[in-house]
From TrEMBL:
Signal peptide: none
GO MF term set: CoA-transferase activity
Protein name: CoA transferase
Positions in coiled-coil regions: none
One family name in Pfam for this protein: CoA_transf_3
Taxonomic superkingdom: Bacteria
InterPro entries membership: CoA-transferase_III_domain, CoA-Trfase_fam_III, CoA-Trfase_III_dom3_sf, CoA-Trfase_III_dom_1_sf
Keywords: Transferase
Organism of derivation: Mycobacterium botniense
Length: 801
């Protein structure tokens, strides 16, 4: 029996975010009832490649997103249909809502009304900016939200000779859907809640790397210019390959790999990025002289992150994905689609069932006796994970962010490091090791670890491993993101954990999975993005793809949290522990699903198109008259016209110029045909105006528009201020600075999400070891032996060992 068997969800959403949310719930075993207007959900006719959908058939993407769901048709204007939907809601456990259909936008079904009328329901509302606030009613698209989030500028993606570029595909929609699924499950046993999810905030958390905290703590932005990653995605003799140097050691290893040991300089005043850029020409020459297979075989031997650059045509044939069965047949379309984004045992996901035809279950539900659920009691101050104890054996971004969400929503999280190998985010702030307590001054570590307790254990020594086993016996959940072999070496695999504490859940977050040819390859976000196809769609068609560089980790985090929540439900029902495998690449394959679906269903290979996209025309970035804070003429606005009505609004806002009055432009096909002309005219109009004026004129007219924000300026956005998305956190070493919270607001929520600062290295050693029953003398002995500690052990080179 699947974990969510018997759980009923009414889907009142339109678009990918809601559809992906309810897909994840259906995969977990929930009964999802999709309520559609007579003409059907627009996704039934949507194809990113523009493929023609045969009459009576549904688009391939809709079939992927709708497996295992039911469909009922409701006419909001028909007698009795509103009452029918109300009865469905009364008999359900949760409802997922977004604007876009005549049913969802009926006054009876706004989220506040649903929550008031059905207090037992978990009501999850997905909107661009949130249900309330100064921007609540403003139009937006995936593209303009990326601009507002700072994600288009990101970590300096691209090159300065062209406009910045958005992350291709519709990744923001999928990530918002994954968040919506997770928060729906998180609050399902807290009584009825109205959960108000902001897609702007999910994009900030997914496409940027805590830029506000970084800027306020260190007084400088992470990046202030666009630069190509070197080597990054490069041309090999027979195709594209992604090679990354995320650490100094990886740069040294790359130098050795290509036969230039003389480039290695551990005392260079230049960063590894600057050193790589100095040698770029020679690096690229070497790569062009070797095949992708040769490069990857060498890089893997040297433990350098690497991946092929996948796309819709080649991805399902890559050896690792064939071995793991990463792609399956759609049960109604026959095309290929990603398998679910996580695996678990003994809990099981539901095998995909055929997606419903329009209204296929309407008669069934109209005839069923729909029994109203009773309102559940709940503690208005309760957080969903209160009482859950988590051992956090993770590092860098993907793992710590998963456990950070648990900590912000009430869990007791113990973050394990060692003095020999602290969390990697402590080491990436550029703080000189000559600074006092330099390891406590990383804004990234601070942003990812509030509310957690800090424990150091040297797991390379027997006493450290013995203490780890004792901590495991006190925890409900273990989360780790080592490469697969590490846990086996520590002797704490799933079987060993079950022997110590039956019922414990082990969440493993390897980059490429627990098996397959790539299982032991190091996995940083950029190689995950390349391997999954996310990079392929990012950039300009006449250049190599750009690495998104941000989406791989947080996307893995939110999918791992979904898997953990299913595992917790399985344990609640059966008492069994669960092994969860939440591979980063499997999560990435799912948010890049359109590529393999469009190719296998229609033979269409999706391509990167700069800042244009399939969901709007025109869609692009246009330079404004502003000068940025760095003294450059490098300020941009994003405009995306998603409907014919928005085109008319844009035309009117521009003063109805003669070029815009061509009747052919009133339809999307005509606008696509004349996109170059529209871009030229819009660019000229924007060039003489400040971004604030452009936004005011176009937004007031109802046109989706956004300023391309520098990420470290996110906290200045009025909507985020209204929602309290940033909270100031005090710290014993660092100044009090703003930290992002969670992308939801909900009735009866906490006043603050950050209850205490990120822990100092080993800050809670004494407290936690005392809980195990160790005496003062024993704890002092552990410290004297270096099993625990409060400062990193430095190697001879002066860097953390």
């Amino acid at each position: 029996m699947e974990p969510l068997n018997g759980y009923v969800v009414v889907d009142l959403s339109t678009g990918i975010a809601g559809a992906y949310c309810t897909k994840l719930l259906a995969d977990g075993g929930a009964r999802v009832i999709k309520v559609e207007p007579p003409q059907g959900d627009p996704l039934r006719r949507w194809s990113a490649s523009g493929a023609a959908i045969e009459p009576g058939d549904d688009a391939a993407l809709f079939k992927f997103l709708s497996c295992s769901k039911h469909s009922v048709v409701v006419d909001a204007a028909a007698d009795g249909d509103i009452e029918f939907v109300d009865a469905l809601l009364a008999s359900a456990d949760s409802v997922v809502w977004s604007r876009g259909s005549t049913v969802a936008e009926h006054p009876a079904f706004c989220p506040d009304r649903i929550h008031d009328r059905h207090p037992h329901l978990t009501v999850t509302a997905i909107t661009p900016f949130g249900l309330h606030g100064p921007w609540a009613a403003r139009p937006a698209t995936e593209f303009t939200l990326q601009a507002w989030s700072g994600g288009i500028v990101g970590l300096g993606r691209g090159s300065a000779d062209r406009a910045p570029v958005y992350v291709g595909g519709q990744v923001g929609e999928y990530v918002a859907g994954a968040y919506a699924s997770a928060v729906t499950l998180a609050f399902r046993r807290c009584g009825g809640r109205l959960i108000d999810l902001s897609m702007l905030e999910t994009q900030i958390l997914s496409l940027t790397y805590y830029p506000v905290t970084y800027f306020e703590m260190l007084g400088r932005p992470w990046r202030d210019a666009r630069n190509l990653t070197v080597p990054g995605i490069a041309r090999a003799k027979d195709g594209l390959v992604d090679i990354g140097c995320g650490t100094a050691q990886q740069w040294f290893d790359l130098c050795a790999m290509i036969g230039h040991e003389e480039w290695i300089d551990e005392h260079s005043p230049l960063s590894i990025t600057e050193q790589a850029n100095e040698k770029a020409d020679e690096l690229y020459t070497w790569l062009r002289e070797h095949t992708v297979e040769e490069i990857r075989e060498l890089a893997s031997a040297f433990r350098i992150p690497n991946a092929p650059v996948a796309n819709g045509a080649n991805i399902e044939h890559l050896d690792h994905f064939r071995f793991r069965g990463s792609f399956i047949d759609n049960p109604r379309g026959g095309f290929r689609q990603p398998a679910p984004p996580y695996r678990m045992a003994p809990a099981q996901l539901r095998p995909p069932q055929p997606p419903p035809r329009l209204g296929e279950q309407t008669t069934l539900y109209r005839q069923l006796p729909l029994v109203a659920r009773a309102a559940a009691d709940h503690n208005s101050d309760s957080l969903p994970f209160k009482g859950l104890r988590v051992l956090d054996m993770t590092t860098f971004w993907a793992g710590p962010y998963c456990t950070h969400l648990l900590a912000m929503l009430g869990a007791d999280v113990i973050h394990v490091e060692s003095t020999r190998r602290p969390d990697g985010t402590r080491l990436i702030a550029g703080i000189p090791v000559t600074d006092e307590q330099w390891w406590e001054k990383s804004p990234i570590f601070s942003a990812l670890n509030t509310n957690k307790k800090g424990l150091t254990l040297d797991l390379q020594r027997p006493r450290g491993r013995d203490l780890l086993r004792r901590f495991i016996q006190s925890c409900d959940v273990i989360v780790e993101n080592f490469t697969p072999r590490v846990l086996d070496q520590l002797g704490v695999d799933f079987a060993a954990i079950q022997a110590m504490r039956p019922g414990t859940i082990l969440v493993r977050m390897p980059g490429f999975g627990l098996d397959g040819p790539w299982r032991d390859n190091p996995a940083f976000a950029y190689v995950i993005e390349a391997a999954a196809g996310l990079s392929w769609l990012t950039g300009y068609p006449d250049r190599n793809p750009y690495e998104p560089y941000t989406i791989g980790d947080p996307n893995a985090s939110i999918h791992a949290l979904n898997a953990l929540l299913l595992a917790l439900e399985h344990r609640r029902r059966t008492g069994q522990g669960v092994l969860v495998e939440a591979a980063m690449v499997d999560a990435a394959l799912n948010v890049a699903a359109e590529q393999v679906i469009e190719y296998s269903a229609y033979g269409a290979l999706l391509q990167r198109t700069g800042n244009r996209g399939p969901a709007a025309a025109p869609q692009n970035l246009y330079r404004t008259a502003d000068i940025d804070e760095f003294g450059r003429a490098d300020c941009w606005v994003a405009v995306a016209v998603a409907t014919d009505e928005q085109w008319e609004a844009l035309r009117d806002a521009l003063g109805r110029p003669s070029w815009a009055m061509d009747p052919k432009l009133c339809a999307v096909a005509g606008r696509r045909e004349q996109h170059d002309l529209i871009d030229e005219r819009l660019a000229a109009w924007c060039a003489d105006r400040a971004a604030d004026e452009i936004v005011r004129v176009l937004w007031d007219a109802g046109v989706p528009v956004g300023k391309v924000m520098q990420p470290h300026r996110q906290a200045e956005l009025a909507q985020l201020v209204f929602r309290g998305f940033f909270e100031e956190v005090r710290h014993p070493v660092n100044p009090a600075v703003k930290h992002s919270t969670v992308p939801i607001r909900f009735c009866c929520g906490p006043g603050e999400f950050h209850r205490r600062s990120a822990p100092l290295l080993g800050q809670h050693n004494h407290e936690l070891l005392s809980e195990l029953g160790l005496t003062e003398a024993e704890i002092a002995e552990l410290e004297a032996e270096g099993i625990i500690g409060r400062a990193p052990t430095l190697s001879d080179s002066g860097t953390a060992g």
